[in-house]
Amino acid sequence: MSCLFLFHLHKTVKITDLNGLEQILSIGQAELFTFIFENQEIKNIKTVMAVKGKISVNTENIFPIIKKFLYSDHDIFLRELVANAEDASQKLQKLASMGEFNGELGDLNVKISIDKEAGTLTISDRGLGMTAEEVEKYINQVAFSGATEFVEKFKDEDTSNIIGKFGLGFYSAFMVSDKVEIVTKSYKEGSQAVKWSCDGSIEFEITDAERAERGSDIILYVNEDSKEFLEDHRISEILNKYCKFMPIPVIFGTETETIKEGEGDDAKEEKIEKEKVINNTAPLWTKDPKELSDEDYRNFYKELYPYGEEPLFWIHLNVDYPFNLTGILYFPKIKNDITQHQNKVQLYSRQVFITDEVKDILPEFLGLMHGVIDSPDIPLNVSRSYLQSDANVKKISNYITRKVADKLNSLFNSDREGFEAKWESIGLFVKYGMMSDEKFFDKAKKFCLYKNMDDKLFTFDEYKAKIEAEQVDKDGNHVFLYTTNPGQQHTYIESAKRKGYDVLKFDSMIDNHFVSNVEQKLEKVQLKRVDADTVEKLVEKEISMESLLSEDDQNKVVEIFKKALGNDNMDLQVQALPAEEMPVSIVLPEFMRRMKEMAEMQGGGGMFGMGDMPGSKNIVINANNPMVERILKSEDETAQNTLARHAYDLAQLSQGLLTGAELSAFIARDLEIMNK
């Protein structure tokens, strides 16, 4: 059987001569006939004649047609059509490599051209092309997948370099077109070129056409609302976004090349116009990592992010089981503003750009990385629901998380000094990952580093060993003291140091969350900010310091301070602290402060409106400080009140709570006391 014509109702008729064929055709198009040609003369007919019909549409295959309503960006049509052209070219390459095609491949490329006068945009290739039967099969019967048949036929061969399904997204062309034409000629010997035409309805027409070479032209008659797609700059923009790494050269427009002939004074330069290839057909992630240098990776990063800082290091991904995945992920120099680093990972499917919104493919913290991942197991036309439920996507996510953790662990073990030098950027990434992914936390706790006030870095186990002697409380908890603002909390840091305690720095934007997260997951460890309590209670021991004041004296001190501060309801505590500690301290209990800060970071009032609360403060009077003893023994009530107020304001000043008129009053009072 050499030819197949489809009309509307099913009948099969054997044709033995031309008269029989003409007789059947005279009936018209009211019925569907399958013509089986028995006569050799008829078998060799080269013409298709004019065929009209209706595109096969049913509930199973309607979706590709209505794609024009489902794409969020209309410019996606060009990606789909260029991807199809690339697909047809790669299939021909594959057939040639398997001996199924013995002709000359020539220069395979995909060309895009604009004819403003005619109002057309054309995508041309020199790939497989199609016969009339194939147009009928692959274009009119929308649900049919050409690649399914192709891959099935060659299932024992390597077909991994074929982009998706033949005809994928073809009908997206109608998003921007009043009419679409296909002029195509099959690579098969003796094929007749044909032209398919459709105005966006289910009506189509197939006729003979003139085309010298194999391949296809997809001609879009751009509609009035989409004239932007007849502008060179707009097409360049789309091609650079979606097609910059496609495997077959994509040609659009021209560029000037300068050719130098001769040397020295006799040298001449000639400028010539040549076709412009807009894509890199062999991007770095498609190459063998063993053949690549560090400079190759850095140059590729510049190609992806021309204005970005040099990356810290990178991971080359390459796996073919249980899913296919290649790519390169870079660790950028991360600043405190996480948002400027998000959405920098580009997702491809066989070198065709899909999206840079990868939060449904990668864990959120991996969104801080830069680079490319490419997987044929993720289709071009993806939806969030697909990504969230697909098993391969979940495997890919878990694999990349593991590879990132392994890379960091390897760098830590092989070059501790270099790892520490990069910790400022790596740290934010690692902490974010530990907070958001349990499996990553388990791996990262081995190389997550904690920096103290001496700018020395420790792993968790190393730091536990360092503070073992001094910072284990009566219940056996290792107490990690930390500061979020070394300048503002300097007084409290110095108090801790005098006690022999070590203090960590947790001053990045995510450390409030990180502290709570770490504490929940590590056994017998407590984290306390240095101003969360008095120095004696930060690490509670069995033995406490004795107070120099009797119980009556302590009660008197409380009353003096309440009167001086004009607040009888103020909650004041008297504690026995070292004499060198401040006369009055304002401490912010760890739990309440954390809750308030987290609520503020989330915006608004947070849980129970805590973000709007002033925050819980404890005011502690040092029973053993000489100034408190002086206040208690003073017989001048005015002097007593002045000193008490001054001691309290010193405490406020140490917490950055003294501002405005209160600060001015404190300065004036301090001068007055000094001059006495």
From TrEMBL:
<feature type="binding site">
    <location>
        <position position="130"/>
    </location>
    <ligand>
        <name>ATP</name>
    </ligand>
</feature>
<dbReference type="InterPro" id="IPR001404">
    <property type="entry name" value="Hsp90_fam"/>
</dbReference>
<dbReference type="InterPro" id="IPR036890">
    <property type="entry name" value="HATPase_C_sf"/>
</dbReference>
<dbReference type="GO" id="GO:0005524">
    <property type="term" value="F:ATP binding"/>
</dbReference>
<dbReference type="GO" id="GO:0016887">
    <property type="term" value="F:ATP hydrolysis activity"/>
</dbReference>
<feature type="binding site">
    <location>
        <begin position="145"/>
        <end position="146"/>
    </location>
    <ligand>
        <name>ATP</name>
    </ligand>
</feature>
<keyword id="KW-0963">Cytoplasm</keyword>
<keyword id="KW-0067">ATP-binding</keyword>
<comment type="similarity">
    <text>Belongs to the heat shock protein 90 family.</text>
</comment>
<keyword id="KW-0143">Chaperone</keyword>
<feature type="binding site">
    <location>
        <position position="80"/>
    </location>
    <ligand>
        <name>ATP</name>
    </ligand>
</feature>
<feature type="binding site">
    <location>
        <position position="384"/>
    </location>
    <ligand>
        <name>ATP</name>
    </ligand>
</feature>
<dbReference type="InterPro" id="IPR020575">
    <property type="entry name" value="Hsp90_N"/>
</dbReference>
<dbReference type="Pfam" id="PF00183">
    <property type="entry name" value="HSP90"/>
</dbReference>
<keyword id="KW-0346">Stress response</keyword>
<feature type="binding site">
    <location>
        <position position="84"/>
    </location>
    <ligand>
        <name>ATP</name>
    </ligand>
</feature>
<keyword id="KW-0547">Nucleotide-binding</keyword>
<dbReference type="InterPro" id="IPR020568">
    <property type="entry name" value="Ribosomal_Su5_D2-typ_SF"/>
</dbReference>
<protein>
    <recommendedName>
        <fullName>Chaperone protein HtpG</fullName>
    </recommendedName>
</protein>
<feature type="binding site">
    <location>
        <position position="125"/>
    </location>
    <ligand>
        <name>ATP</name>
    </ligand>
</feature>
<dbReference type="Pfam" id="PF13589">
    <property type="entry name" value="HATPase_c_3"/>
</dbReference>
<dbReference type="GO" id="GO:0140662">
    <property type="term" value="F:ATP-dependent protein folding chaperone"/>
</dbReference>
<dbReference type="InterPro" id="IPR037196">
    <property type="entry name" value="HSP90_C"/>
</dbReference>
<dbReference type="InterPro" id="IPR019805">
    <property type="entry name" value="Heat_shock_protein_90_CS"/>
</dbReference>
<dbReference type="GO" id="GO:0051082">
    <property type="term" value="F:unfolded protein binding"/>
</dbReference>
